[in-house]
Amino acid sequence: MPDTYHPSSFSGPLKGLRVLDLSTVYAGPFAAAMLGDLGADVLKVELPRVGDSLRGLPPYKEGVPLWWKVTNRNKRGITLDLRRVEGRELLGKMLPKYDVLVENFRPGKLDSWGITKAWMHDINPDLTILRVTGFGQTGPYSHRPGFARVFEAMTGFTNICGEADGPPLHLGFPIADAVAGLFGAVGVLAALYQRHASGVLKGEEIDCSLMESMFRIMEFLSIEYDQLGIVRQRSGSFSQYASPGNIYRTRDGKWASIAASTQSIFERLCRALNRQDLIADGRFLTNPLRVANREVLDTVIGEEISRYSVEELSILLDENEVGFSPIYDISDIFKDPHFAARNALVRVPDEELGSIRMQAVTPVFCNSPGAVRRAGPGMGQHNDEVLAELGLSPKQISSLKSSGVI
Known about the structure:
- The structure is a single chain.
- This protein is α/β, with parallel strands linked by helices.
- Helix content is 38%, strand content 15%.
- The protein has 18 helices and 13 strands.
- The protein has helices at 27-37, 66-71, 85-94, 109-112, 117-123, 148-154, 175-198, 210-216, 220-228, 263-272, 277-280, 287-292, 294-305, 310-319, 330-335, 337-341, 383-389, 394-403, and strands spanning 18-21, 41-46, 60-61, 64-65, 75-79, 100-103, 128-133, 205-209, 245-249, 255-259, 324-326, 345-350, 354-359.
- The strands form 4 sheets. It has a 6-stranded parallel sheet.
- α1 (27-37) crosses α7.
- The longest helix is centred in the middle third of the chain and has 24 residues, at 175-198.
- It is elongated and about 80 Å long.
- The protein starts with 17 loop residues before the first strand and ends with a helix.
């Protein structure tokens, strides 16, 4: 794929939007990537020689960081030392060309380099600034370092993960980073809509913290404690709010997840398993009763499911419109016909690996669909191109390289 981007060839509802991504690792870059997926022209900025820390996280293929390829897809990439006066000057030349800036330094770090909100808005009053941090821009913890697991633990999420009689468990994936990235992208879109609707071209400053993003999706935990004094605990794979809902072992040793979250689905499940008697059982008449007696009900459901192979169960429950899925690993996803029909995996050209597959753009826009145009760039891959767009000569660019500014 050619190194040169042509914004006129971009597709998606955000075509024409330009985003400057100064952030590192996952949450901030994920927010910028979401905008890029939907058509924005995104420029990724890394520290010379050091690069983004995400390059140092596995998995790798022949030394090439694979996670990087996805989180920084649809971005051009340059290196720029923002700590130096020359780097700040170059950033100042870029700012008028961009609508959005994404950063995730600790509060005050950019200010210490002279890159203040006032300085940026003096150059470009329309600039929307997304600041993604662990604890937020204010408060007693704001200057603490933080990673996804910190906020998963701090917001009650980790406490409800694990078996009832076991320790809290972290997931094997930094879910808090992804959640904050999504909230950050939504915040940017809301700020841009406000500008458009009000007609006042004033750039917004968005304070997006991993702590508050993760806490927001915990939904009923706070109101349950506030109104009932209940501190929700771990329940293994049992659903916290509906029964039956668990992971069940089939006759052929496979695992299946079943959720009967409404009355009608519960009744259809009972009929599918030829256990209509459970529908009229006084212990299971309503979902609150089923949750209160879930251990008994789950034992019965588990015994019935163990009579079927996973394929037989899939056919049976599909015919009866019961929510169900085998527990997939990634190889199952690559073989699943529905994922294929939805084009949920796309092939992307890459300069280092040739052709790679990754998740498609979501959500899907029917009239102006986004696209994965390229995988994450090499470090400083577009330095010459971007600096030439700013009017720098080859000699000036060479001098910046030799002095370590880029």
